[in-house]
UniProtKB/TrEMBL annotation:
<feature type="signal peptide">
    <location>
        <begin position="1"/>
        <end position="21"/>
    </location>
</feature>
<feature type="domain" description="GH18">
    <location>
        <begin position="27"/>
        <end position="397"/>
    </location>
</feature>
<dbReference type="InterPro" id="IPR001223">
    <property type="entry name" value="Glyco_hydro18_cat"/>
</dbReference>
<dbReference type="InterPro" id="IPR050314">
    <property type="entry name" value="Glycosyl_Hydrlase_18"/>
</dbReference>
<protein>
    <recommendedName>
        <fullName>chitinase</fullName>
        <ecNumber>3.2.1.14</ecNumber>
    </recommendedName>
</protein>
<dbReference type="InterPro" id="IPR017853">
    <property type="entry name" value="GH"/>
</dbReference>
<keyword id="KW-0732">Signal</keyword>
<dbReference type="Pfam" id="PF00704">
    <property type="entry name" value="Glyco_hydro_18"/>
</dbReference>
<dbReference type="InterPro" id="IPR011583">
    <property type="entry name" value="Chitinase_II/V-like_cat"/>
</dbReference>
Length: 417
């Protein structure tokens, strides 16, 4: 980005700083900012309500190197799409800036780092060195599936990863010691109970002695391993996820629940879905086509996703238009959905109304959680309607002291494009 563009962004951010009122709070409003969609709504006052912003991702493997200098003695770079220095002027002065390490599919670097006491100390020391070099306020550890069920679960069976369950809290403890008490250490963790292999009543108390809070990924709760239609991010399943962590020993105040600023779709088996809708009034629970290779786990191209920032793929435009215009909010489970019988497509995503009037009140407020987060900020551009609705609803919960909430937004799904 040019110096002129940066100056314009900084000026916009400064003007919004001057307009802000009452966004500072212990209640967390956490955002991931990704290299795939790095746009920020610097023109919106809601951006100044972000309490934590994590730049995603720095690969885990770089923290296993033995030296931070090259053969000539020059410092090695810390690979990140945007610097902390660049980002700092664009957010509230009290916003904490983190570096997110890892991400979906990034497991090998963590496994190497967690293996022994020596490797854990090396990994943790490198994390601390990176934080010092970049000026970050802390790190978010995105080793999303320690113990198994990650992207490579067909290539590396869970039995071969069982040791990671005990090693994971030890790695976090080593990172905490290296960072010291003043830096933030958070972790992104699975939202499906069947994936919480490393998060049990015997491990969660040890994990929570090191981390400040967990970002529970209450999305992708239907994925390509499933065989029947469901909501990928419903109120009911989100509550089940956060309740599982609380039952395992995590206090509600140390949990952020997650929102997805993207749309998911899945190919379905026509006859079964038509019959189920005829019998039950909806196609919820009907059969999908096989979505991943049973031998390799490879994606068979029968499920997908795109963010609100992305252009809708041409072959999906007509069906998605129908999903926006004709979709239904399932009051029982708390998820927006649509089954397109012509294209045999199942759609699942959050609307502005669902976020503001269902998910924030029924999850953040009723469970008295410590915060909410979203993947990811730029994914909601260029209109940033879901982010704005989320932040306004978050602010209302904060201002009410988690008291009774009122409806704060209203729109049709079509308005969100």
């Amino acid at each position: 980005m040019s110096a002129k563009s940066f100056a314009v962004l900084s000026l916009l951010a400064m003007l919004v700083h001057m307009a802000i009122a009452g966004c500072t709070s212990e209640l967390r409003n956490f955002m991931y900012l990704t290299g795939q969609h790095p746009a920020m709504p610097v023109h919106l006052v809601e951006q100044q309500c972000i309490t934590h912003l994590a730049l995603a991702f720095m690969p885990s493997g770089v923290f296993n190197r033995d030296s931070q200098s090259d053969v000539n003695g020059s410092p090695l770079d810390w690979p990140l799409f945007r610097s902390i220095e660049f980002t700092r002027p664009l957010v509230n002065a009290e916003t904490k800036l983190l570096v997110a390490i890892g991400g979906w599919g990034d497991t090998a670097g963590f496994a190497e780092g967690a293996l022994t006491e020596g490797s854990r100390q090396r990994f943790a020391g490198n994390v601390a060195a990176m934080v010092a070099a970049t000026g970050a306020d802390g790190v978010d550890i995105d080793w999303e599936y320690p113990g198994g069920n990650g992207e490579d679960y067909k290539q590396v069976p869970n039995a071969e990863r069982a040791w990671e369950t005990a090693a994971y809290p030890l790695l976090l403890a080593a990172i905490r010691r290296a960072l010291g008490p003043s830096k933030i250490l958070s972790a992104a963790v699975p939202g499906r109970p069947e994936d919480m292999l490393a998060f049990t009543a015997s491990t969660v108390p040890a994990i929570m002695r090191s981390v400040d809070f967990l970002n529970v990924m209450t999305y992708d709760l239907m994925n390509r391993r499933d065989t029947v239609t469901a909501h990928h991010s419903s109120v009911q399943n989100s509550l089940a996820a956060v309740d599982a962590y609380m039952a395992a020993g995590c206090d509600a105040q140390h949990i952020n629940f997650g929102l997805a600023f993207y749309v998911r779709y899945y190919k379905t088996e026509h006859n079964d879905c038509a019959e189920r809708r005829l019998q039950n009034g909806s196609a919820i629970g009907c059969r999908t086509l096989l979505m991943e290779d049973p031998e390799t786990g490879a994606d068979l191209g029968r499920a997908g996703a795109f963010s609100w920032h992305d252009s809708v793929p041409g072959y999906l435009e007509s069906s998605f238009d129908k999903a926006l215009a004709q979709g239904t909010f399932d009051k029982e489970s708390g998820g927006y959905y649509y089954w397109d019988e012509d294209e045999d497509l199942w759609w699942s995503f959050d609307t502005v109304d669902a976020i503001a009037n269902e998910k924030i009140p029924r999850i953040l407020q009723e469970r008295k959680l410590g915060g909410v987060f979203a993947w990811g900020l730029g994914e909601d551009g260029p209109k940033f309607q879901h982010f704005s609705a989320m932040s306004r609803a978050w602010k209302k919960v904060k201002d009410d002291g988690r008291g009774a909430s009122n409806h704060v937004a209203s729109s049709t799904a079509r308005d969100e494009l």
